[in-house]
Each structure stands twice: as C-alpha cells, then as structure tokens.
C-alpha cells in the first residue's frame, strides 16, 4: 500500500524515550459493530472500534507543534538519526471524520478518498480493527472459518483500491518487542505486508530516516532504508471494474524489518523474504470478463456480500490450510465464484496449491508462492493470528493497472494473465483520480466471522 498523507510532529525531551504520544488532539476511536457467528447461523453482535494507521498521523515535536515531517521531508534538527527522532517526535490523535474522511455508523465503516481538512488535504487512509479493550488489535485465526462482509464500492473508478485484508502485525503494534515504541496499537503502529514497504515512517520503534528520499511523483510520500515485512491475506482488493483475492506468504513468521536484498526491491523482487506476487484469483484475469463489474453477474453498481471460506485439509482449526473459497450474495441470491477459462488450465473456482501452480505455469510467472510454502504457510500465519486492515488508496507506482487493466503494459494483452480488467492502460494516474474522483468512498459493513456456513443464508 502507498499512503499519501503528510505527518506533523511534536517537541523534544532530553530523556531518550521514543515514538512518543502527543496530547494536542484527543484520540477517540470510531466504534464499529461486528458479528461473531456459531454453527447453525446464530450470530452475536460485539462492539469494536477502528484505529488510523500511524503513517497518516500528525507527527510533531514533543511538547510543541513543530512538524517532524512535512510533505515528504523529515526535519533534520529533530530527526538526525532513527533513535533521536523517535525520542523527539510524537504521534498525535486523529480527527477521523474532519481530517481523514473516516466515519462509522453501527456496523458500517466509510472511507472517503480525498478529504479537505482544516489544515491540509488528506488522500486515502488505512485503519485496523481493535479488540474489545480498544487499545490492542483484534487477532483472528480464520482456519476452518469463514469471513463475510458487505461492500459498496460503486463510486470507485479505475485506479482506486478499496481494500480489506489481513496482515501478521503484532497485537500491540510492536510496543512489547520494541520498548521505544510508546504509541503502540492505540495509535496504529506496527504495519507490515508482503511488499515490505519502505514508506513506513517508524519501524521497530525507530524512525525510518536513514537514506530517506522523497517520492518523485508523490508530494506526501517517500521511502527509507528499511522495509517492514509480514504475511498478508488480501481478501478484497477492488474497485467497480475489478477485484482480486490473493494470499501472499513470507519466510518470516512475524513483522520483520528488512534491508537490502531481503526486502525484494526492484531486480531483487524474487530474492526477498516475501512473495510479492501472491496467488491471485481475479475473475477477469482468469478468463471470465462477464462476472464482476457494473451490470454484470456480481453487479458492482450496488452493495453485495463477499464470503471467503478458509478450508483446512482435516476440517479443523489446526489442520493445514488447503483451499480458499469465494462466494457472493446479492439481492438475496447466492452467486458461486467464476471458473477459470484459460486454455491449458482446468476449470478452477477456488484457490488451492494446484490452482496456484497451474496459474503460474500457464502465465509464465515466478512461483515464489510455492517456494515459500503456499497455502500451508498462509494457514500458519492465521493460526498465529492476523489483524484486519481496511483501506482506500491510489497507486503512484503502477497506477493500479495490475488490478484493473493490462499489466505489464509492455506485454501482449492477448497473452494469458496480462489482461486483468477493462480499464485503459492510461487510466489510474493519481493526479487524475485525486482531482476527478475526490468524493469516491468505499463502505465496508456487516462484518461477520464464524464456522463454515454460519455467516450467510444459502
């Protein structure tokens, strides 16, 4: 993910504490109801909340209001090195609706793409589900379970991504392993994913200031020496024109700071500790161009329900993950997932290791998913526990063409796996999307977890 909001910073203490908490804005987490279901379909509503990722937050000097980070540049006097910066600077509370366009109502979370706040323009957001105590992340194990939610992404055009996914973050945001992180999960720290992002401003309780360079095409983002890696299950990456469900795996078993080859950057993409490509099921890419989109079988012009089932080999919560199944429900009708329609491939309609191997072979893609353990590794991450993430973002690196257009753009669109959606290869320019679709909003609602078959009416 590529967050695009500048942070502001706090003043400094002589004592080297680290990654402080500011006091200029009260941190009040928006409440969100979710449901926990049991066999037979009986569901109980429980009160939870969401927290904004630390990367979007105002970062200022401790005891003051001087920015530690402005645009895509750190203040050298406050942040001359990673540990001094963590001691000098504090993350502050968030005005969720006014600054970030994040609102909740009952069981519904709305994420607005562009929000003109009182001091700045915010672009995109990322939030995490908190547990009952409102200060640690909710940790879920979905082995032999299903996860269900409703989504309305009817206003999301080409180039946007309304994403719902799980990552293997620490429950406390890393504050236990890294005592210099005083903010913790209450302030949205500790993010990681399989792209091993370098744009995260604090990793392992230290500022990512070493070798920091502002982005050449994003005035609010940059990248540092370190990345932050972990297993990732993309349940839903989508806009109104396309969608993908994608497990990604790593050779590490918790949030891990990377540098050099381990991060898998550039030409080292397939030499890092994480599988950046993943094993995706995108109906359009798998040959069915009639399945999902405006007016199609799954009609993205209105709300629908997404059901994802995580099947284990022995149908227990401790067995090896062996299959990821997808169903949809819209207008009272259960819709089976599309089937692959690719020459040389069987008619798969779910993600299995056999599907992944066949897809990689047919598309000529490097199969790091298999090399890193495939679905069993994904299941191991769930058994440890993963954190629910919901976000809206645009793509300054690849314009989201990997989701909704032809990608790579220099490949033959008729070659298997290249066409991923109907959007033009000229679409998704962030400057265009941000100016023309500022009001775009994704709404996630009615989140349910429970045993297979318990969260929806068949």
TrEMBL record:
Which molecular-function annotations from GO does this UniProt entry contain? cellulose 1,4-beta-cellobiosidase activity
Q: Which reaction does it catalyse?
A: Hydrolysis of (1->4)-beta-D-glucosidic linkages in cellulose and cellotetraose, releasing cellobiose from the non-reducing ends of the chains
Matching InterPro entries, A to Z? Answer: ConA-like_dom_sf, Glyco_hydro_7, Glyco_hydro_7_sf
What are the entry keywords? Answer: Carbohydrate metabolism, Cellulose degradation, Glycosidase, Hydrolase, Polysaccharide degradation, Signal
Span list, region Disordered = 412-437
Q: Which family does it belong to?
A: Belongs to the glycosyl hydrolase 7 (cellulase C) family.
Q: What is this protein called?
A: Glucanase
């Amino acid at each position: 993910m590529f967050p695009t909001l500048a942070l502001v910073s706090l003043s400094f203490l002589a004592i080297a504490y680290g990654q402080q908490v500011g006091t200029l804005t009260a941190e009040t987490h928006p409440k969100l109801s979710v449901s926990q279901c049991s066999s037979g379909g009986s569901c109980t509503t429980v009160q939870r909340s969401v927290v904004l990722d630390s990367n979007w937050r105002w970062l200022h000097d401790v005891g003051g209001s001087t920015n530690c980070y402005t645009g895509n540049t750190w203040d050298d006097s406050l942040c001359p090195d990673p540990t001094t910066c963590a001691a000098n600077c504090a993350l502050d509370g968030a005005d969720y609706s006014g600054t970030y366009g994040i609102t909740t109502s009952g069981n519904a979370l709305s994420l607005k793409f562009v929000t003109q706040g009182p001091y700045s323009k915010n672009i995109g957001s990322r939030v995490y589900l908190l547990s009952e105590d409102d200060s640690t992340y909710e940790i879920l194990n979905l082995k032999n379970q299903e996860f269900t939610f409703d989504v309305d992404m009817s206003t999301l055009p080409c180039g946007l991504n309304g994403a719902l996914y799980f990552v293997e973050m620490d429950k406390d945001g890393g504050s236990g392993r890294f005592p210099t992180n005083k903010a913790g999960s209450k302030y949205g720290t500790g993010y990681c994913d399989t792209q091993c992002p370098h744009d995260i401003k604090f990793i392992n309780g230290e500022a990512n200031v070493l070798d920091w360079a502002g982005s050449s095409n994003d005035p609010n983002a940059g990248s540092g020496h370190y990345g932050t890696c972990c297993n990732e299950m993309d349940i839903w990456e989508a806009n109104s024109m396309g969608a993908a469900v994608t497990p990604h795996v790593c050779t590490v078993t918790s949030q891990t700071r990377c540098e050099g080859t381990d991060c898998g950057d550039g030409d080292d993409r397939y030499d890092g500790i994480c599988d950046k490509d993943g094993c995706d099921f995108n109906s359009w890419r798998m040959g069915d161009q009639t399945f999902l989109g405006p007016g199609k079988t799954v009609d993205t012009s209105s709300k629908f329900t997404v059901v994802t089932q995580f099947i284990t080999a022995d149908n227990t919560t401790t067995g090896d993950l062996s299959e990821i199944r997808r169903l949809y429900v819209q207008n009272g009708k259960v819709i089976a997932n599309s089937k692959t329609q690719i020459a040389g491939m069987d008619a798969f309609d779910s993600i299995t290791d056999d599907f992944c191997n066949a897809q990689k072979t047919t598309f000529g893609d490097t199969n790091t998913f298999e090399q890193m353990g495939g679905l069993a590794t994904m299941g191991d991450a769930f058994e440890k526990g993963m954190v629910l993430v919901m976000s809206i973002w645009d793509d300054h690196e690849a314009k989201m063409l990997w989701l909704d257009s032809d990608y790579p753009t220099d490949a033959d669109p008729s070659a298997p796996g290249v066409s991923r959606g109907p959007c033009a290869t000229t679409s998704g320019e962030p400057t265009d999307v941000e100016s023309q679709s500022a009001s775009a909003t994704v709404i996630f609602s009615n989140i349910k977890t429970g045993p297979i078959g318990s969260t929806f009416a068949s």
